[in-house]
């Protein structure tokens, strides 16, 4: 959550700074600014304590007036996996508002191989037990 909170608070500011630079010097296209904003945000996120065990997916939708036409730019970038990952969890805020990241991981790690098919159900059940009233969905993919 630390990383997603960082992105929520800072990615748009980083993009605004990149775009301001373009508007001032006029040498770089908007798509490059979006790419640079993602790169800067990624480098900043790598400095956060949570970066070792967590990540996030970020999306940008930017509507600009260019030559009296509205132009929509959309882009996204997602988490990275490394060789140490044995699974990943895709879940909505109904899960993440109730379960800490490591608690969710620990629940999945505690499952026997024969119980892996119920991994998503385990996460949903744990969120319900913690009192989630939001929509709750989860997918666990074993690598």
TrEMBL record:
InterPro entries: PP2C (IPR015655), PPM-type-like_dom_sf (IPR036457), PPM-type_phosphatase-like_dom (IPR001932). GO terms for molecular function: protein serine/threonine phosphatase activity. Transmembrane segments: none annotated. Gene3D superfamilies: PPM-type phosphatase domain. It comes from the Eukaryota. Pfam families: PP2C (PF00481). Residues 82-136 form the PPM-type phosphatase domain. This is PPM-type phosphatase domain-containing protein. It comes from Aphanomyces astaci (Crayfish plague agent).
